[in-house]
Amino acid sequence: MINYPVLVLNQNYEPLMVCRARRAVVLIFQGKAEMLEDGVGLVHSATSSFPLPSVIRLGRQVKRPRQKKRLTRLEVFNRDHHTCQYCGRQSHQLSLDHIIPRYRGGPHTWENVVSACIPCNRKKAGRTPQEANMLLITRPVAPTGNGMNISRFCLEDRDKWQKYLFQ
Ligand SMILES: [Zn+2]
Description:
There is one protein chain. The protein is an alpha+beta fold. 23% of the residues lie in helices and 26% in strands. It is built from 6 helices and 6 strands, in the order ββαββαββαααα. The two termini are 28 Å apart. Bound molecules: zinc ion. Zinc ion binds next to strand 6 and helix 3.
């Protein structure tokens, strides 16, 4: 419950990011945010209990985080949901694959790197996906610098978020 995703709105109701319920509750307790929609379950403190938030709004307008995410192995794995982009298997043992191999001029950019499991990476070796006849399951793009990906959560049943996200 405490890891439940909570939509965080800026003071002007603009969707800012998604955080865990734990963090949202702290923000409310500190008076830095108000609860707009309650979620599933209750939070218990020593003296009382109140509903877990589903949508909160910050009391103060904050600047949207615009900084680009650094291209690191972990960020690429996160972007790809720890899934090999060739065979679609989730794995804790992933490697970074350059779609167009580096020695053939492939750049080290978000659009040219994907997560690949070790067997797929070995199989592909120094070839392009076309040459290796291994198709990518999604087209890699640079992630938006907004922490958690809101669109991913929109796919789930988040009725209470709809009116804030699509207005
Ligand atoms: Zn694979």
